[in-house]
Amino acid sequence: MDRFIDDLPPMDLMRSEKMMFVQLIIPVESAQRAVSYLGELGLLQFRDLWLRYERCRFQVKEQDFVVAFNYIHYDVFPLLQLNSDKSPFQRTFVNQVKRCGEMSRKLRFFKEQINKAGLQSSVHPVSGPDLDLEELEIQLAEHEHELIETNSNSEKLRQTYNELLEFKMVLQKAGGFLVSSNGHAVAEETELSENVYSMNDYADTASLLEQDIRAGPSNQSGLRFISGIICKSKVLRFERMLFRATRGNMLFNQAPADEEIMDPVTAEMVEKTIFVVFFSGEQARTKILKICEAFGANCYPVSEDLTKQRQIIREVLSRLSELEATLDAGIRHRNKALTSIGFHLTKWMNMVRREKAVYDTLNMLNFDVTKKCLVGEGWCPIFAKAQIQEVLQRATFDSNSQVGTIFHVMDSMESPPTYFRTNRFTNAFQEIVDAYGVARYQEANPAVYAVITFPFLFAVMFGDWGHGICLLLGALVLIAQERKLSNQKLGSFMEMLFGGRYVLLLMSLFSIYCGLIYNEFFSVPFHIFGGSAYRCRDTTCSDAYTAGLVKYREPYPFGVDPSWRGSRSELPFLNSLKMKMSILLGVTQMNLGIILSYFDARFFGSSLDIRQESEVILYLGARYQFVPQLIFLNSLFGYLSLLIIIKWCTGSQADLYHILLLLLATVAVPWMLFPKPFILRKLHTERFQGRTYGILGTSEMDLEVEPDSARQHHEDFNFSEIFVHQMIHSIEFVLGAVSNTASYLRLWALSLAHSELSTVFYEKVLLLAWGYDNLVIRLVGLAVFAFATAFILLMMETLSAFLHALRLHWVEFQNKFYHGDGYKFRPFSFALINDEED
């Protein structure tokens, strides 16, 4: 048996990529270019050397010593002092990171201004002369200064324009209030002349206006007024405050402004209201002015002389015309500058984002004692070793460095990261598994099996080939628009749907397959594969469904016979079929999980050093967990599944359980519980018998700063803890074998619920509406049926079946073998840098 298993293929697809821990010794002059090239390759995950100490064991090639003997001191390698006491602001390239952050801020400012102006920036980078970081920094500073100055001037002009526009509306509206208050019956409205006057006339008018402001109302002891404009939303509170402050000794008139005014800061249009407050006394005037200031109301002087009003209005209109022309010219100049920036914005943003990522990565490296080299460590796949070395050689050549980068493979006490190579098709399934937990390094990957089992279990619950065709059309649309949608920013729901387009494709195909087995097309059966195997008892049978059917030829060739639909025994037959099918699928998948646990234990037991305690546990698990678990599960539910298959094939019935199988299941429980803890204790006693000395260290470094990953391998053996853990695991498996098998009955329940809901909508909505000889009722019934199908059966039922299939994989299947306590391989890659990193 062992020889047969050893001859099996290594199942590399099921294991994560083999990783190696490497150290890079990079000369300072080529460090930036080397890290940049590694970012383009995207196959090396750097480790931050500033955050921890690490003991390293490695071998250096003899030629490496010869090449760089005078350049660096290798006596510092066995133990690197990595400055864990320094803050992130004391790192080597922190100033470059700050510069890149400042440039990113400027680029975001440009993008906001372009969007605010309603312009479109170039999505694809425009080809042009390459700029280095210093030139780009100078250019961005110039563009920012120009834009800030332009925006400041535009804001001031807009503020002046708004004041003149408000002044014009106050003159127009308040003049009518003043004429009415003086008793003049003015039948016609004040007409505003559109003539444009010269600046000299405006100077005269302005001085006349100043005289009017200084002089004030002619009657100092009589009725006085203040006119102005305020936001419409504040009018009620403003009037109430004026009434309370003056104790009702005022008259408040208001009128809506004819035009909305643009806020120069937010560029939003604001509705305003013009007001005139009549009062008496200097004290009331002081109070009203303070209230106006508190509410943000702008007060404007209005002369009681109609001639002066007309003259001031003419000059205001003239100034408004000039300011409009100036504002338009400023906007054109600003848009031209923003358009020029927009052509290169994407290219600049990518460049700055990359440079910032490079310097962030360089900050994870550390200088050696000579300050001539940067030392970096990280993980990379074994297959990428040649590519990384080639990239480092190219970086050395391009930077004209006299000394090349030294690439070391080292030993590490830490567990390597997990890296699965995926494509557009398999990535979504891998993300489903990773959502539960990232696989431990070299652990069996459930995503390999989930590619088929996940959409199939979904289809068992969703089986209807009409609904499956609808899902297939949606998946094909997403796949056809793949190139277009991949370059767009989608919403959270649409992004999730687009990311799972191939999952949706397989779910729809399996739903069509299961729907053909169930013979349901929107709950309607069809004679697709020939005639039914049943017919009436005689030719005069008029009520075959209630009187019963007689089988007269071979069974229906594929799927459920359409004659079962509507018969008296339809529900008992389909319930029995789907319930037994759920048990068979569940037992099969749980057995697959137990078998994978054996291959996992065998893999780790044969490929790793069995002297370590954790690997001994895995190795013993292959013999003292796999066999009793397989016996216990199949003695109970495996035999039950076998009886189901025998009855389907032969029609004969057998005893439900044999006493021998029950005895085997009983024996399997202590087999799972007792052997492994006692064997572990025996191995530990034999290994350390007579050894009272401790572990010899390579330095005087205190154990408090030793990494957890290095300490965990020589912890004291605790038999009680091992025994309790094994007891919990055994009890969990025994109870889980029953509960997990019952949990697979959800396949039957959801399939039945989906079928019955579809039947209700078809018979009680569509057929009921079609029974009326009225076009309106038929259209309403068709609309209700389409709405129920789309939103309940195709959306809610799809989500429900998806979540239940997810539960079956995460809990019932993966808990048999999957630990999920690893961590992802996250290489330094420019392709993984997104817009949100800034």
Automatic annotation (TrEMBL):
It comes from Citrus sinensis (Sweet orange). This is V-type proton ATPase subunit a1. It comes from the Eukaryota.
